[in-house]
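Friendly challenge for the regulars: who can give me the structure tokens for this chain first? No prize, just bragging rights.
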Amino acid sequence: MADTIADTRRLFTKPQNLNDAYGPPSNFLEIDVSNPETTGVGRGRFTTYEIRLKTNLPIFKLKESRVRRRYSDFEWLRAELERESKVVVPPLPGKALIRQLPFRGDDGIFDDSFIEERRQGLEQFLNKVAGHPLAQNERCLHMFLQDESVDKTYTPSKVRQA
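First reply, four minutes later:
Bragging rights claimed.
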């Protein structure tokens, strides 16, 4: 039997300077869901969330964008990704059906604590989905994150890098 010795020498690396350590990362994608706003009255009342995107990934046409979306828009995005992509799509935070019952002692789905909990869940959902390389090619994700309004009659397709 021939003796084999594992090569444990370190790879040569160049020394890191301040620009390397504290400069912008080579690839980044930051998505924040914030500033919930509740509008309307009665059955027409709903909450929208501001979605801010910052990235230097070449697949995105805009490097910074800011849009507002409702929970139903997130449901649409999830359904589109499940239908069109080969990505396992994470769940959205729940619909909170019990909170929608009348004669409750709180504001139900418009209660500040519920809105904050949902906001955190939506942010986690978006970061998981948008961080997936296959999902980044889906036109519905780009439209959701960067277009002022969501065209739900769009033709599904892949996004090509510029």
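The beta strands are 29-39, 46-55, 64-70. The mean pLDDT is 83. Your move, everyone else.
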